[in-house]
Amino acid sequence: MGTEGLGAIERLTRELTRLPGIGPKSAERITHYLLAHRGQAETLAEALFAVKERVKPCRECFNLTEGELCHICSDPRRDRSQICVVELPRDLAALERAGNYRGVYHVLQGRIAPLENIGPENLTFGPLLERIRRGGVEEVIMATNPTLEGDGTALYLSNLLAGTGVRITRLARGLPSGSVLEFANAQMLADAIEGRRGF
Amino acid sequence: MAAEKALALVVRTVDWSETSRIATLWTRELGKVRVLAKGGRRLKSNFESALDLLTVCRIVLLRKSSGGLDLLTEAQVAQRFPQLRRDLPALYAGYYIAELLADSTEDYDPHPALFDEAVAALTALGTTGVSTPLRLARFELVWLRELGYQPELRQCVVCAAEVEEKDGLVFRADAGGIVCTTCQKKTRRGQDDFLSPKGLAALRELSENPEAWRRDLEDKVRVELRQVLNRYVTYLRGKPAKLLPYLRS
Ligand SMILES: [Zn+2]
Ligand SMILES: [Zn+2]
């Protein structure tokens, strides 16, 4: 539903309600807080606008970046023979926090979820294959979430990569089935990367 | 609010916030229920990872009297289907089962026989020697029967004459069964799919014999069955299933 025809206060409240995890009561509280703190409202508005205007997917790996290439793809010390495939930028961030991975990434921008109308064609499999075709890639590490849909996505990708000669590995199963990377702790993820095994 | 226990299959989940999730559960005892699971996304929550798609779990829920979402208070994994994670067609068949369950019944309308069939199908799919298309067809036929749409495979749906397994028959989706050759000439065509003698025999077998899916069929016959079931299920739902493009025959 559009909110253009509403008064400014009601419009903000409605927009806030559309955010994940914010109910009508919280939305109203935030609206009144911002009305009482106009300076903060302005800073927030600028930050929102900057994110919308400047942040875009890295042209190589689809991580979020303000430039053409993200900070990982533009770092000469990263090992380009290893590509770690994740669902979302927040999963990449979680693995980076673990701190022991020196390769590069590829962000699929989601997982295959036919029940939610997300098919392989909606994800970045094509550009990933393109990266592999250009050569120099020796290992693809599947780091999709260990949920049913995440595992299904990894399975689809492993079928896609069969015959490319690239070694396919999977994060070790220290992570409980059905969980999400984002909430795993750094040590657990570091161990999962260390202990990865053939797909 | 009264606490109720049930055995549930997770057929849909949506993240609601950082720490809560809304899940559609298809339970044996209560039918379809929609629950709010607080803390559902945290690794160490009391739901562990029970709310992953197509997991069977033992749940306790607090039923809301005022029509809102029920509150999930406990969920423990009872059964998973790990073989679906290694077989793409079987996984997609599993998603299709979830879709049929989620979209076709009202909340709190239990069908224990259909629940048992769904779990049996999910257990068999992706295991050695099981034909995914045939196991899925058996599930669909049970689903149809349980919802009151069992296809008529013995008599012509127009003239009610007994029909032999012979050439020239069609399955008419909008009439819910087979049409004999005589009636095909006399009536306006409906949503018809050609059905060979072998195709009809296979459909009858799968419909009547719970173990018939264990046998395999010629490719041609499997394609026929897929077409008939696709059209009939699509007609009944009023729209094609999201998983249709993913199903193989
Ligand atoms: Zn990048
Ligand atoms: Zn007839």
Q: How is this structure best summarized?
A:
By secondary structure, chain A is of the alpha/beta class. Chain A is 41% helix and 14% strand. In chain A, strands 4-3-5-6-7 form a 5-stranded mixed beta sheet.
Structure description:
The complex is a heterodimer of chains A (199) and B (249). By secondary structure, chain A is α/β, with parallel strands linked by helices. Chain A has 7 helices and 7 strands, in the order αααβββαβαβαβαβ. Chain A has 2 domains: 8-54, RecR Domain 1 (Helicase, Ruva Protein, domain 3, Orthogonal Bundle), CATH 1.10.8; 67-198, Dna Topoisomerase Vi A Subunit, Chain: A, domain 2, CATH 3.40.1360. Helix content of chain A is 41%, strand content 14%. Chain A has a 5-stranded mixed sheet with strand order 4-3-5-6-7. Chain A has a two-stranded antiparallel sheet with strand order 1-2. Chain B folds into 2 domains: 3-79, Nucleic acid-binding proteins (OB fold (Dihydrolipoamide Acetyltransferase, E2P)); 82-150 and 187-246, Up-down Bundle (de novo design (two linked rop proteins)), CATH 1.20.1440.120. Chain B has helices at residues 88-104, 112-124, 132-146, 181-186, 197-208, 219-237; strands at residues 3-15, 20-27, 31-38, 56-62, 70-79, 169-172, 177-179, 192-195. The mean pLDDT of chain B is 92. Chain B has 6 helices and 8 strands, in the order E-E-E-E-E-H-H-H-E-E-H-E-H-H. Classes of the chains: A alpha/beta (199), B alpha+beta (249). The complex binds zinc ion (2 copies).
Features:
heterodimer, A: 199 residues, alpha/beta, Helicase, Ruva Protein, domain 3, Dna Topoisomerase Vi A Subunit, Chain: A, domain 2, five-stranded mixed β-sheet, two-stranded antiparallel sheet, 7 helices, elongated, B: 249 residues, alpha+beta, OB fold (Dihydrolipoamide Acetyltransferase, E2P), de novo design (two linked rop proteins), five-stranded mixed beta barrel, three-stranded antiparallel β-sheet, 6 helices, 8 strands, 33% helix, binds zinc ion
